Structure formats: C-alpha cells, structure tokens
Amino acid sequence: MADSRFLKFFNYILLVEGNYSNDKNDKGGETKYGITKERARECGYKGNMKDLTKR
Q1: 3-class secondary-structure state, position 35
Q2: Most CB within 10 Å of its CB: which of 4, 12, 34, 37?
C-alpha cells in the first residue's frame, strides 16, 4: 500500500515538475523534475540541468 501511494505522488511530482525551469522569481534556480541544480550537484550530477533524465 505504501509503495502504491509513493508511486502515485512521485508520478504526480514528475508530471508537474518534469520540465526544466529557471524562473528568476524562484529562489531554487535551475530545476528539473523538482530537483534543484544545487541538490543535483550534491548527489554527484555534473551535467546540464536541461539534460537531466529520469534514470
């Protein structure tokens, strides 16, 4: 049950946060899939945020 609830909300996040964004009014800066550039770097991602994939 918990797994299905997680997947439901995770898929919703991907739907609403799935596009690349760099809104000057959003203090998160560059984001894709709801992941900020800062957090992506902390996790070892070194590429362009526009190129970030789901896998």
Answers
A1: strand
A2: 37
What pLDDT does 46 receive? 97
Find out whether 25 and 33 touch, Cβ atoms under 8 Å: no
Rounded CA separation 54/17 (Å):
12
pLDDT tens per residue across span 14-52: 888 889 999 999 898 999 998 999 999 999 999 999 999
Which pair of tokens denotes residue 35? 């992941």
Q: Which residues of 14-39 are buried (b: 16+ CB within 10 A; e: fewer)?
A: eeeeeeeeeeeeeeeebbbbebbbee
Residue 39 φ then ψ, to 5°: -70, -40
